[in-house]
C-alpha cells in the first residue's frame, strides 16, 4: 500500500501505459549524483541494518557507490554539516585535494559560531583563514603528504573565485567588511555573557523532570601507571604512557548509564573473546589517539536516544562545547545550529558556553574525582595481591634452589612486572567497580551544586562519604607501606598521610582535553581533517607529534634536560631488566648519547652567550 501511495498517478485502466518502455530507461553510463544530505540518508539506512545492496536499490544508485560512501563517511559527514533541508541541490563535483581546506575552514566557522555568535565572518576573513590553514599544513605536515597534494596546496591562493565557489557550496552569503573589524570587540562582549547563557539553560530545565536531565562528559585515565612523577620506576616503562578515555552520563535523579571506553588498541590481547558489555557493562571502542571523537560521541548519544525512545521520554543532555561534541551534534542533526538548537528524535542537546565550564557540569562536581579515587584503590589492591603472590612464589623457588630468600628492598621492576597486571581486562574490571560504587546521593548533590535542581535533601550530604573514603585510603596506605619495594616502584614512597595519598593517586589524571579554553583549536582541526580525508602518509605519526605539541608540559632548562637524559642512560645500562634485549639497549644508548652530545653543545653555547652579555648602561 505504501508503494501505491508513492505513485501519484490515478489508478485507471489505461492500456497505453506500457508503451515506449525505453523512454524511462536511464541513459547508459550516466551517473546519478546525490547531495551530501542524501548520502547521509543512505548511510543512515545502512547503519540501521540495511544491506548495501538494498540501499543501492532503494535510493537508485550502484552498490559500488554505496560502498564508496561507507568508506568516505567522515568526509561526507563534514561536507553535509552545512546542507539543510531548504538548501538547493548543490553537489561538490568531485572530492578535490583542496576540499580539505574547505573542511578545516568550515570546522573553524562552527567553533566561532559557538564561541562568539555575535561575530560576523567576512569574505576577507575567510580568505585569510584559508591561507593560514594552507600555510600551517605546508609548514607542519608537508613531510607526511604526497607530492601531488603538496603541489595543489602550494598553488592555492584563496582567490575571489575560490571564495565565491566555496560560499556557493556552503550556501553562504558575503558580509560587509566593517563587521570583520568589529570582530574582536563582539567576541569579548559575547564572552561576558557566559553566565547568562548558563542561566538560560537552567531556566529551560525548570519544567523538565529530573529523570530526563542528563550530563555527559569524558575523563582521561592513565590506566597503566600509579604516579605522575616522571622519575618513578613505573614511569620508566613506555607502557605507562598508555591511556583510555571514559565517557560517562548521569541524570539529575542519580541514574548512571553504561560507560563507553575508548582505547588505542583495536584488538587488545587481554580482551580476546571477551564481550565487554555483558562482562563489565562497558562499551569498548578504539581510536588512534585513544580519545572520544565525533563518531564515538555520536554513537553514545544515539544509544541514549534509543533508551529515551524506549521509555517514551525526551531527554535533555547538558554537555560542554568541545570540538568533538559540536561535530557530533552536526552529524546527528545537520540542520541544527547553536541559535536554533540541536534536537533529534528523543534527545535535545544543550551546549554550555565556551571556556571553563566545570562549575556548570555535575560530573566535575566530585563524580570524576570519586571514580578516579575508587579506580586507583581497586588498581592498587590488585597490584598488592599480585605482588604478594609473586613474592611467595619467588621465595619458594629461591628456597628450593639455593636456600636463599629474596631481598625485600630490591627494585621490584627487576623481577615483578607491574604492567603485566595493568592490561585492559583488569582495567575494565577496576572501572566497573569504581562506576558502580558512585552513590546516587553524590550525583544528586553534584546536580544541586550546579544549580540545575533544588538543594539536595539533608541525607544527601558528603560528610559520611568523605569519612569512609579517607578511612579506606588509610587502610590501603598501611598495607602499601609494609611493602616498601613495591611502594617505591609505584612512585608512592613520599606519601605520609591518607589525604596526601589520595592527592597523589588522582591529581595526575587530567580531565579529557575538550578545547573549550581556546577559540577554534587550529591544530586539532588540521590533523582531524587531513586524517579524515586520508591525505596523511603516516596518520599515526602525525597524531603522536600533535599530541606531544599539545601536551601541557613545563619548559625544561638545558641542565634539566641533560639530567633527564643522564637518568635515561642509567636506565638503559641496567642489564638485569628482561624487558629489553641487549640489541635494543645498545640502540637506545646510542640514540641517547647523540642527544646528550647535542644538549652539551647547547649548554656550551648558553654559557658563551652568558659570558658575552653586555651589562653596561
TrEMBL record:
Gene Ontology molecular function, alphabetical: DNA binding
Q: Does the keyword Ribonucleoprotein apply?
A: no
User: Gene3D superfamilies this protein is in?
Assistant: Homeodomain-like (1.10.10.60)
Low complexity: bias regions: 7-24
**Repeat is among the record's keywords:** no
InterPro entries reported for this sequence: CenT-Element_Derived, DDE_SF_endonuclease_dom, Homeodomain-like_sf, HTH_CenpB_DNA-bd_dom
Arranged from A to Z, the UniProt key words for this protein are: DNA-binding
PROSITE patterns reported for this sequence: HTH_CENPB (PS51253)
Q: Where is this region: Disordered?
A: 1-31
Domain HTH CENPB-type: from-to ranges: 89-176
Extract the Pfam families matched here.
DDE_1, HTH_Tnp_Tc5
Q: Sorted alphabetically, which SUPFAM superfamilies does this protein's record hold?
A: Homeodomain-like (SSF46689)
Q: What GO CC annotations are associated with the protein?
A: nucleus
Protein name in UniProt: Unnamed protein product
Q: Species lineage, top-down?
A: Eukaryota, Sar, Stramenopiles, Oomycota, Peronosporomycetes
